[in-house]
Amino acid sequence: MSQPPEVTGRLAARVAAAVAGCPGVAGLRDGPVGTYLPGQVVTGVALRDGSVVVAVTVTASRPLAETAQQIRACLAGVVPGWSVDVLIEDIDVPRAGRPA
Fold this sequence. Notes:
The protein has helices at 5-20, 64-76, and strands at 25-28, 34-37, 40-43, 45-48, 51-59, 83-92. It is α+β, with helices and mostly antiparallel strands. Strands 1, 4, 5 and 6 form a four-stranded mixed β-sheet that branches. A two-stranded antiparallel ribbon has the order 2-3. The radius of gyration is 14 Å and the shape is globular.
């Protein structure tokens, strides 16, 4: 993106917060998808000119396509008009003795 790092960082943080609050999202994923800024990384969010990629772990409680669509709907208010690619990188499946 061709914006100052502080502007990009604030937008990436807003995207991350919106995604984390979506039903069916267990969390954003560490890895190659991220917004890299001086002294800071916004994990699971990559901003491009007019598009965003998010990498998430989802819960097993909802259909994957429904969760992806919910993420896109949540981001429509944060980055209106941008394309949104959702990478579901893992599914958080509850195990016996471990809370969901």
